[in-house]
């Protein structure tokens, strides 16, 4: 059965009673079956609203009653409905007054002390109520506005966090990366998707200084820590994705690009590395010149693996390193009748803390002397004649056993010395060693370029080792830069390493190659960049700073 609302309808002015007993006029906004009347009024520059029972309206406004109306006790109903009264929300007319739109705008209805404080919205003012409500909202106290703002920001932040968590979980499931690196891993992945790698040019170089780079796979420790690989190769360009964080904690990548003579792939083995680096130099020593091949890189990046042979646990296979491959090629060439007057001898020594030790003579300490002409002699160095590759391999085994090693943060069996393996072509029967030496190939496994962390080590010996290594690497850089000049212009006296290699830097025909080895993990990024910067300073290696989203050139 539908209720008869009598004269009570939308936009009609009615007298209402508040819970504190005060009475004032209000404007009917809606009537609801079976017997509720919703109304609004102005109070303290705000629009308030409330639902009142039809009985109460009829009792207070007798002129609006229908003809068959029977008066009832309205006291309890007034109390009941007044508890539901609420403030009108920011600028919107409430559909049901007992529903509050948001927490931020909820406020208790202030008590009205007198009728004069409340003003009745007229039918005219109701038609433009939208405009007025906006004005009213603008007049809201700043504190309330701030609470609204904070609330909205919090909701937005939580939504963003939830989104990020979702992306992170997806990325982590996809790449299985470290918790603190997943955003960078995703950025690097995106970068690789946008910049597909080019194949290398497969051209073997024969320049005076040849600089190549080899990155090793992530090792056991890095894999266990779920490290991200931050090094990408494309053709002859090597990219290092340096993780960066802005002051506002936004993460981004700095993509550094370096161009080399050759960049090896992860699956390129020692044989391939040899063919693109040391092999062309074997030819040159038969022409009577000096050649050098250096392995340079952070400790644990694979220098000894590349030069001396692959490791299986702590055992090294000396037959598949660059030392053995070079000896193999020298023997092949020696078989040619034109070189029948030549013989191959090998020496193997290490330079540790600026002192030289003979690895083929129980690490006997050797003296380095300079004669009147400035020539350097390593007094007492064993020069062993070898006739087969097997001879060379057994020499290498003996020497490697004697090499000084220690433990660094990156390699538990770190070589703390520069190891120098020399293949000399000699013509027996000549008087002096100088006369006898036709050509010499020095292959050098440099000590790990020290990280600040190791140089700052609290252990005095490690600290001193680090300082010596760094000093000799700086001297080496200066000598390589001066390579090909005469003895006066090559600063070889800067370290024992450069002294013993003096003749290799002098003369127009001398040639060198540098194999830089890299650890590709996130935690080695700084060292990797340092290694690459060292290379840029010795050669024509180009360094290109890329804008964040610049495509590969
Ligand atoms: N290209 C590679 N492929 C697979 N494993 C490698 C590679 N390069 C290096 N490794 C492994 O990494 C570990 C460290 O290598 P290595 O000892 O050659 O480093 P290093 O640069 O000579 O270090 P240090 O300067 O401390 O002597 C070894 O266990 C080695 O087997």
TrEMBL record:
The text of the family note is: Belongs to the TRAFAC class myosin-kinesin ATPase superfamily. Kinesin family. KIN-13 subfamily.
Q: Which GO terms describe its biological process?
A: cell division; microtubule depolymerization; microtubule-based movement
- Give the record's keywords alphabetically: ATP-binding, Cell cycle, Cell division, Coiled coil, Cytoplasm, Cytoskeleton, Microtubule, Mitosis, Motor protein, Nucleotide-binding
Q: What is this protein called?
A: Kinesin-like protein
Q: Where is each Kinesin motor domain found?
A: 208-541
Xref: CDD domains: KISc_KIF2_like
| GO molecular-function terms, A-Z | ATP binding; microtubule binding; microtubule motor activity
- In this chain, ATP is annotated as bound at 297-304
What is the predominant subcellular site recorded for this chain? cytoplasm
Q: Does the keyword tRNA processing apply?
A: no
Q: Which InterPro entries match?
A: KIF2A-like_N, Kinesin-like_fam, Kinesin_motor_CS, Kinesin_motor_dom, Kinesin_motor_dom_sf, P-loop_NTPase
Residue segments, region Disordered: 106-135
Q: Name where it's found.
A: Cytoplasm, Cytoskeleton
Taxonomic lineage is: Eukaryota, Metazoa, Chordata, Tunicata, Appendicularia
GO CC term, one of those recorded: microtubule
């Amino acid at each position: 059965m539908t209720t008869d609302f009598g004269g009570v309808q939308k936009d009609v002015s009615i007298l209402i009673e508040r819970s504190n007993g005060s009475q004032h006029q209000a404007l009917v906004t809606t009537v609801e079956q079976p017997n509720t009347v919703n109304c609004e009024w102005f109070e303290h520059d705000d629009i308030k609203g409330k639902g009142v029972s039809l009985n109460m309206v009829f009792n207070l406004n007798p002129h609006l009653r229908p003809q068959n109306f029977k008066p009832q006790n309205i006291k309890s109903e007034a109390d009941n409905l007044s508890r539901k009264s609420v403030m009108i929300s920011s600028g919107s007319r409430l559909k049901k007054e007992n529903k509050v739109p948001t927490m931020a705008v909820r406020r208790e209805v202030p008590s009205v002390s007198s009728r004069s404080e409340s003003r009745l919205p007229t039918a005219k003012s109701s038609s433009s109520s939208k405009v007025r409500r906006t004005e009213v909202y603008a007049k809201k106290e700043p504190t309330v506005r701030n609470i609204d703002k904070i609330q909205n920001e919090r909701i937005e932040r939580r939504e963003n966090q939830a989104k990020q968590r979702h992306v992170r979980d997806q990325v982590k499931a996809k790449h299985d990366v470290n918790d603190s690196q997943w955003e960078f891993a995703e950025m690097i992945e995106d970068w690789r998707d946008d910049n597909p790698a080019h194949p290398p040019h497969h051209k073997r170089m024969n320049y005076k200084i040849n600089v190549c780079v080899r990155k090793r796979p992530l090792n056991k420790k890095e894999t266990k820590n779920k490290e991200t690989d931050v090094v990408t190769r494309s053709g002859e360009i090597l990219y290092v994705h340096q993780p960066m964080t802005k002051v506002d904690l936004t993460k981004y990548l700095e993509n550094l690009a370096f161009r080399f003579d050759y960049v090896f792939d992860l699956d390129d083995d020692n044989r391939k590395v040899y063919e693109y680096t040391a092999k062309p130099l074997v030819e040159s020593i038969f022409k009577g010149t000096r050649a050098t091949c250096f392995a340079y890189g952070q400790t644990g990046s694979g220098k000894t693996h590349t030069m001396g042979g692959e490791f299986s646990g702590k055992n090294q296979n000396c037959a598949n390193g660059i030392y053995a491959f070079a000896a193999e090629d020298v023997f092949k060439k020696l078989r040619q009748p034109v070189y029948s007057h030549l013989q191959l001898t090998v020496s193997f020594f290490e330079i540790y803390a600026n002192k030289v030790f003979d690895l083929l003579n129980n690490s006997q300490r050797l003296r380095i002397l300079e004669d009147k002409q400035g020539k350097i002699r390593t007094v007492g160095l064993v020069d062993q004649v070898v006739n087969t590759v097997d001879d060379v391999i057994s020499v290498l085994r003996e020497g490697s056993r004697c090499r000084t090693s220690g433990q660094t943060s990156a390699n538990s069996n770190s070589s703390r010395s520069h190891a120098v393996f020399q293949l000399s072509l000699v013509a027996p029967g000549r008087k002096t060693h100088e006369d006898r030496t036709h050509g010499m190939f020095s292959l050098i496994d440099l000590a790990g370029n020290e990280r600040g962390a190791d140089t700052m080590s609290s252990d005095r010996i490690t600290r001193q080792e680090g300082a010596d290594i760094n000093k000799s690497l700086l001297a080496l850089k200066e000598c390589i830069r001066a390579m090909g000049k005469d003895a006066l212009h090559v600063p070889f006296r800067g370290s024992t390493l450069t002294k013993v290699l003096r003749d290799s830097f002098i003369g127009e025909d001398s040639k060198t190659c540098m194999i830089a080895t890299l650890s590709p993990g996130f935690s080695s990024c700084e060292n990797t960049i340092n290694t690459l910067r060292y290379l840029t300073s010795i050669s024509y290696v180009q360094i290109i700073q890329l804008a964040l989203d610049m495509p590969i050139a």
